[in-house]
Amino acid sequence: MKFDRLLSIVLLLQHRDLVPARELAERLEVSQRTIHRDVEALSAAGVPVYATRGKDGGIGLLAGFRTDVTGLTTDEARALFVLASQSAHSALGLDHALGSALRKVMAALPAPHRPAAELTSRRILVEPDRWHAPPRPETNLEDLYAAVLSDRRLRVRYRHGGRTELRTYTVDPYGLVAKAGIWYLVADHKRTPRLLRTDRLSQVGVLEAEARRRPGIELAQVWHHLRREVEDRSTGVRVTVRVRRERLDMVTRIAGGYFTAPPVPEASSDELSRVELVYPVLEAVRHLMQFGTDVRIVGPPEARAETARAITELAAVYGTA
C-alpha cells in the first residue's frame, strides 16, 4: 500500500543524510519515478523532505525531523514480537534494552493493534537450538559484540576444528551471525572472507587501526558467500546407501545435512529407501556406522572398503581374546 511505502521512506531517511532515489527504489521494489512521486506526496503532506541533484545527491529529511511507529500494521507489530521471542538478544546482553524497546513500541501502537501484538508474544515461542544440542563453552559475546561495533581491526586467537593449537589472526570484522544456536564472527583475513566460530575464540583484542573492509561489501553479502561455500556439495565423496524405512526418520534427523536430495523408495523393496550423501573426505563415511545394519552402503567401492576397514579396527579393539 502507498501509505506503508511513504512511511517506509520516512523511516529510511531518518537514518541517513541523503539516500539516492535508486537505492530507495531497490529497497522498496518500485521504480525511481514512483519514489519521486512519493517524495512530492510527502512534501505536500508537510513532511520536510528534499532532493538534491548531482553525483552525491539524493533524497533527505531536514535535520531534527522524526516520526513514530504508529503507522505499523497488525502483521508488522506481530512480526516484531515474534522476533523478540528469539534468543539472539540474550546472548548479546540486550535483554533489558529489548524489553524497554518493546514497551515503547507497544505504547506507540494504535490501540486496535495492541491485543494482536500482546497475544503473539504469549502464543509464539522460537527456540533456535536443536534437540539434544551438545553443551557449548561459554563465550563472552557482549565483549565481542562491542568489539565488532568499534569498527576497528581485531586480533584473535582461534582454534580450528579438529585441532588443539591456537592460531593468531588479524581480521577486519563485518559482524556476528547466529545460525542454529551457534554464533560466528564473519571477517576478512588478508581480504579473504573467513567464518570463525565464537566458541573457538580464546582471545579477542581491539586494535587502534580501523577495519579495512572491502568497499561496498556488507555482512549479508559475505555471509551469503560463506554459507554457499559450506553448503556446496559439488565436491566431496558421493555415497549411495539403502535405509530401512522404519529408521528413515532417525537417519534423516542425524545425517540429513549430508543428503543431496530427499530419499527415494526402492522399486524392488517396500522396506528400503535409497539416499545419496556427500561427505567432505572418504574417512567421514564412518559416520554411517552408528546406524548399524539399518543403513547399507551401495557404493562407491572405496566407501564400502573404508567401512569394512573401520569394522576390522573396532573388532580388534573390542573383540574377545
TrEMBL record:
<dbReference type="Pfam" id="PF08279">
    <property type="entry name" value="HTH_11"/>
</dbReference>
<dbReference type="InterPro" id="IPR028349">
    <property type="entry name" value="PafC-like"/>
</dbReference>
<dbReference type="InterPro" id="IPR036390">
    <property type="entry name" value="WH_DNA-bd_sf"/>
</dbReference>
<dbReference type="InterPro" id="IPR013196">
    <property type="entry name" value="HTH_11"/>
</dbReference>
<dbReference type="GO" id="GO:0003700">
    <property type="term" value="F:DNA-binding transcription factor activity"/>
</dbReference>
<dbReference type="InterPro" id="IPR057727">
    <property type="entry name" value="WCX_dom"/>
</dbReference>
<dbReference type="InterPro" id="IPR001034">
    <property type="entry name" value="DeoR_HTH"/>
</dbReference>
<dbReference type="Pfam" id="PF25583">
    <property type="entry name" value="WCX"/>
</dbReference>
<keyword id="KW-0614">Plasmid</keyword>
<dbReference type="InterPro" id="IPR051534">
    <property type="entry name" value="CBASS_pafABC_assoc_protein"/>
</dbReference>
<dbReference type="InterPro" id="IPR036388">
    <property type="entry name" value="WH-like_DNA-bd_sf"/>
</dbReference>
<keyword id="KW-0804">Transcription</keyword>
<dbReference type="InterPro" id="IPR026881">
    <property type="entry name" value="WYL_dom"/>
</dbReference>
<dbReference type="InterPro" id="IPR018356">
    <property type="entry name" value="Tscrpt_reg_HTH_DeoR_CS"/>
</dbReference>
<keyword id="KW-0238">DNA-binding</keyword>
<protein>
    <submittedName>
        <fullName>WYL domain-containing protein</fullName>
    </submittedName>
</protein>
<dbReference type="GO" id="GO:0003677">
    <property type="term" value="F:DNA binding"/>
</dbReference>
<feature type="domain" description="HTH deoR-type">
    <location>
        <begin position="2"/>
        <end position="57"/>
    </location>
</feature>
<dbReference type="Pfam" id="PF13280">
    <property type="entry name" value="WYL"/>
</dbReference>
<keyword id="KW-0805">Transcription regulation</keyword>
